[in-house]
Amino acid sequence: MTDISNSDVPPPVGAAPRRQTRATVVRWGGHAVQVGGGAPVVVQSMTNTDTADAAATAAQVRALAQAGSELVRITVNTPEAARAVPAIRAQLDRMNVSVPLVGDFHYNGHKLLGQFPECAQTLSKYRINPGNMGGGKKRDDNFAQMIEVACRHDKPIRIGVNWGSLDHELLARMMDDNARRAQPWEAQAVMRDALVISAISNARRAEELGLNPNAIVLSCKVSHVQDLITVYRDLSARCDYPLHLGLTEAGMGSKGIVASTAALAVLLQQGIGDTIRISLTPEPGGDRRREVVVAQEILQTMGLRAFTPMVVACPGCGRTSSTVFQELANDIQAYLREQMPLWKTRYPGVENMNVAVMGCVVNGPGESRHADIGISLPGTGEVPSAPVYIDGERTITLKGDNIAVEFQAIVENYVQRRYGRSAHASQS
Ligand code: SF4
């Protein structure tokens, strides 16, 4: 029989230590966001407004920043968009939104950055795609122009290589070299290698052109989970630049969330990744902030960062007699998230709070006891009352039609008592 007793040492828990990287600092005014160098994994997002519409873009940047995006990328694709960038920044500054803006450039970035110096100065970072800059000498010249602007304005860059726009000349060369191997690799393996080589060789070239090595972040985005994991493991082993993680074209709804989470969780668990973006396709009219919430939830559920109190809720089953507990779980989750912009400054540490909303007596009391504050709603055939547990102790029992409102008030009261300034003062 297999021996199932444990050794003297408990199994280790948690992610591997973060990979050591250079530190890249992205600034706006007095506000600085560090990517890599041991800093917490940074959450970023991207707008989908027409950048030339300064008012709409500023409004969406503000919404993303308020949801918790620490960097926001905007498309800069036309002279009108480049001209709008300073206006967007000015509007954000008037609204006290200090989030740094990253400009996303393809094809004509060298021209736009040269022709619109105010745009170049206003952006806090440039995303450069070396696969979309023409070919041969033209490509080299265009790249050199963008690096020259980055050096002149002292801006960091991301060299963002993408599966869908990989440098054709590099890939063709590598395919030819592969054909001469004694045992040629599969084409897909050569493409993965080409992504990594493209990112690192362009970073080295940027350094040769005078860019500070601490001003470079890399990404190699692909749309399949296993390819992404392989590419980033390889990339992280071959350089020490901070890495931007994201599964490109992840898709809509649960497919996009699951694919992004599966890929990023494996890498983050291995200590790989310094900033993340979740590329979800929004439903028509959908809320762009969802990509920020998902990014935060990945990091928080993995225990890497805390952003907002977490609600533990059971899935419900044949023992739940109504939708009351689903509604309560949903309402309390939304309430906690809505409060965070205020609570963050007023109640430091509240983002680590755990709340349980459970559907019946089977796991309700146990799970509620493990949470900071929990409620166990009655299942089918149980006495219609809902005991509330605070710090592991059973306290008040709620009854009647106002359970949701009363529970919310209890949570608010608990937050004030446990995380308010007076609570901190009495602990110190
Ligand atoms: S706690 Fe009760 S209602 Fe919830 S899943 Fe478990 S058995 Fe079902």
Automatic annotation (TrEMBL):
Entry GO MF terms:
4 iron, 4 sulfur cluster binding; 4-hydroxy-3-methylbut-2-en-1-yl diphosphate synthase activity (ferredoxin); 4-hydroxy-3-methylbut-2-enyl-diphosphate synthase activity (flavodoxin); iron ion binding
Keywords noted in UniProt? 4Fe-4S, Iron, Iron-sulfur, Isoprene biosynthesis, Metal-binding, Oxidoreductase
EC numbers for this chain? 1.17.7.3
Every copy of the IspG TIM-barrel domain together lies at: 32-295
What EC class does the entry list?
Answer: oxidoreductase
Pfam hit, one? GcpE
Q: What InterPro entries does the entry give?
A: Dihydropteroate_synth-like_sf, IspG_bac, IspG_bac-typ, IspG_C, IspG_TIM, NO2/SO3_Rdtase_4Fe4S_sf
CC cofactor note: Binds 1 [4Fe-4S] cluster.
* Statement: the UniProt record of this protein carries the keyword Oxidoreductase: yes
Q: Which SUPFAM superfamilies did the record assign? A: Nitrite and sulphite reductase 4Fe-4S domain-like
User: Any idea which positions bind [4Fe-4S] cluster?
Assistant: C314, C317, C360, E367
Region (Disordered) residue ranges read 1-20
> Which Gene Ontology BP terms does the record give?
isopentenyl diphosphate biosynthetic process, methylerythritol 4-phosphate pathway; terpenoid biosynthetic process
Q: Which reaction does it catalyse?
A: (2E)-4-hydroxy-3-methylbut-2-enyl diphosphate + oxidized [flavodoxin] + H2O + 2 H(+) = 2-C-methyl-D-erythritol 2,4-cyclic diphosphate + reduced [flavodoxin]
Residue ranges constituting the IspG C-terminal domain according to the UniProt record: 311-412
Identify the pathway: Isoprenoid biosynthesis; isopentenyl diphosphate biosynthesis via DXP pathway; isopentenyl diphosphate from 1-deoxy-D-xylulose 5-phosphate: step 5/6
Query: What PANTHER family does the entry give?
Result: 4-HYDROXY-3-METHYLBUT-2-EN-1-YL DIPHOSPHATE SYNTHASE, 4-HYDROXY-3-METHYLBUT-2-EN-1-YL DIPHOSPHATE SYNTHASE (FERREDOXIN), CHLOROPLASTIC
Physiological role: Converts 2C-methyl-D-erythritol 2,4-cyclodiphosphate (ME-2,4cPP) into 1-hydroxy-2-methyl-2-(E)-butenyl 4-diphosphate.
Q: Which family does it belong to?
A: Belongs to the IspG family.
Name this protein carries in UniProt: 4-hydroxy-3-methylbut-2-en-1-yl diphosphate synthase (flavodoxin)
